[in-house]
Amino acid sequence: MRLKLNRRELLEKCMSVGVVTSTAGLMPSVLAEAWAHTEAANRPPTPMDELGPFYKRLAPAGNMMRQPGDPGMPLEVDGVIYSTRGEVIPTASLEIWQTSHVGLYDLDGYRYRATFSSNAKGEYNISSVIPGHYPARRCQHVHYLVTAPGFKPLTTQLYFATDPVFEGNPDKNFAKGDAASREIVRPVTLVGDPHEIHAHVQFELVLEPL
Amino acid sequence: MKAVFAPFLLAFLCAASSYSQEMRKLITLPTPSVVSSVAVCGQSGLVAALGRDGSITVFRLASSEAVTKRPAEAGLGVLACSPDGKLLATSKGDETVVIADVSGTALRKFAITGKQVGGLTFSPDSSMLAVQLYESPTQLWDVAHGMLIAALQTNFSGSGAVDFSPDSSQFATADFDTVVRIYDRSGNLKAKYAGLLLEPFALSFMPDGKQLVVGGADRKLSFLDASDGRLLRTLPLGADPVFVAWPLPGGNSLVSMHVDANSLKHFTGLVWNLATAKSSAMPVDVGEIVGRGVPQKDQAVIFLRDSNSSVTEWALPD
After folding, report:
1. What does the pLDDT look like over B56-92, one tens digit per residue?
2. What phi, psi does A167 have (nearest 5°)?
C-alpha cells in the first residue's frame, strides 16, 4: 500500500519514530507551516550561459569597472545572490567581464574585468558601461562567473532587454541574440539626473547546492 | 562562441608564399554535399568526411574510392574516426555518442546524461574516446566496452582542447578555467599547469610525447613538460588568439592557426621552425581547412574544402 501524507502527517510520523526531533518543542503544525514557507521561497537556479572565449584569471579586485571619462552609457547593475532554497549567499565570489562600449575585450590588460564578493546580505553591485556589440555576436552582454563554497559554480551572462537585437520583444526574440534563456535578458531603466543619466539593471543570481 | 572552439571553422586566405609553393596537392575527393569536417583515420588509409547535411562518406585515400556512403542524418555535427580505421564516433551535439563500424552499423551508444557533446577524439591505440562537453569537463570512455573510464574535473566549464600522447599512456586537457591538466590513461590527474591567465583553445602532445604545446587567447605558444606540467618555453606573442597548435611529425616544425579576437572571422596560419623560433605565413590557395592529420608515416596533410562538392588533400613539408 502506498501512503500519501501531507506535510503535517509526514512530520508527525517522522517525529513519532524519532527520525525528526524538535528540540524547540514545536508542534508538527508549526513545523509544517515553516516547511511550506521554505518551499514557497525556493528559487529556480539562474540559467547558465557559456563562458565565452575571453575569460581572464586574476582580474583586479573591486566592482568599479568604469573609469572617469570612459565613453559609453554608464551602467549600474545590482542584485542579490541566493541559493535555490531562497537563502542569501554572503561572500560569494563574482568575476565579471565584458567588452568596452565599442565591443572589444581587453586581452592585454584588465579593462572591464573585475573580481569582488557579495556582502553579508548577499548583495552585489557593479559600475560599468553598456557593452558594445561584439562583432562576432549580436548581443550586448556581461559575463558572470559566480562561486561560493557548497554551491555549483555558475557561468552565465546578463543581456539587456533594450538591445535592438531583441526588436523590442525579448520574450519572442531572446534566442535571436544568442541569449541562452529569457530569464537572463533583463529590463533596463534609465535613472539619475538628466545631465547624468545612467542605465540601471537588477540581476539576481541563484546558485544550486553541490 | 561554443565551448569547443570549433576546430574546423578555419579558412585560410589566399596568398602567395614560399611555404605554399612547397605544399603538394595529393588528391581530390568528390563529396555528395558541402563538407564540414574530415576525420583522418590514423594511418589506416581511410578518411571520413562529414557533410553539413549529416551525411558521412568514408574514402580510401590511395584511390579516392568511397568505401562507405551514409545518408544524411539531420543534426549530425561531430565526427571522429579511430586510428585503426575500424570505428566512427558521431554525435548530434546532444547527450549521445554513437560508435559504429566504418560501414555504418551502430555498435554501441554512450549516454552522456545531462551534457551536450562538443568534440570527440580517439586515442592513438583506438581503445579510448575523449568526449568534450559543452560547458562541462571532458569524459574518457572505453570504446570496446562502452564504459565510462573517468569524468574529469575542472574548477568550472569544460575543455578547449584535448589530446592523447602518441603511446596512448597519457591524456591532457586545456581547460577553460585556464588550467592544463595531464592524466594517465585511467583519468588520474598526474600534473597540471596553472600559469595561464587567458583561456586555452589548442593543445597537442609533441611527437615524442615528452612535451605539450598549448595556445589560446594569450596569443602565444607555451611548451610544457608532459611529465610534470612545468613551463619550458614560449614562442613569441602573435597578433591573434591561437586555436590550433599542431606539431608536424618530425618534431621540427609546428603549424599554428589563429583567429582575430575582434571579429572571430579572420583566420591565419603560421608554420614555426622550432629550432629558430621563426615563423612564416601559411596561406594556402583555396578556402577553408576542414581536416588535418598524418595518414602516412611522417606525412602531415590538410584537407581543404575547395568547392561545394569536393575536398583536396595537401601534403605539408616538415
Report:
1. 999 999 999 999 999 999 999 999 999 999 999 999 9
2. 50, 35
Q: Which residue has the cell 574529469?
A: B152
Please answer yes or no on whether B197 and A52 come within 8 Å at the CB atom.
no
At A16 the pLDDT is 62
Which of B148, B126, B124, B125 has the alpha carbon at shortest distance from B137?
B148
CATH class given for the domain over A74-207: mainly beta
Burial (CB < 10 A; 0-12, 13-18, 19+), residue B43, is: middle
Q: Which three cell numbers stand for residue A192?
A: 539619475
Q: What is the phi/psi pair of residue B163, to 5°?
A: -160, 150
Q: How far apart are CA B107 and CA B145, in angstroms?
A: 10
B197–A104 CB contact, under 8 Å: no
A145 touches chain B (CB under 8 A): yes
Q: What residues in B contact A104, CB-CB < 8 Å?
A: 262
Domains, chain B, in order of start with CATH, read: 18-315 (2.130.10.10)
SS (H, E, C) B148-206: EEEECCCCCCCEEEEEECCCCCEEEEEECCCCEEEEECCCCEEEEECCCCECEEEEEEC
Cβ proximity of B235 and B220 under 8 Å: yes
Strands B147-151 and B136-142: antiparallel
Bridge partner residues of B35 (DSSP): B51
For residue A46, give the nearest of A136, A127, A133, A159 by alpha carbon: A159
Chain B residue numbers touching A135 (CB-CB < 8 A): 262-265
CB B12 within 8 A of CB B269: yes
> CB contact, 8 Å: B268 with chain A?
no
Spans of all domains in chain A: 7-41, 74-207
User: Which one, of B318, B291, B298, lies nearest residue B27 by Cα?
Assistant: B291
For chain B, give me the number of helices (H) and strands (E)? 1, 28
What's the DSSP call for residue B11?
Answer: B
Is the distance from CB of B117 to CB of B94 less than 8 angstroms? Answer: yes
Cα separation, B143 vs B271, in Å, equals 34
Beta strands A74-83; A205-207: pairing state: parallel
In tens, the pLDDT along A144-181 reads 999 999 999 999 999 999 999 898 999 998 887 778 89
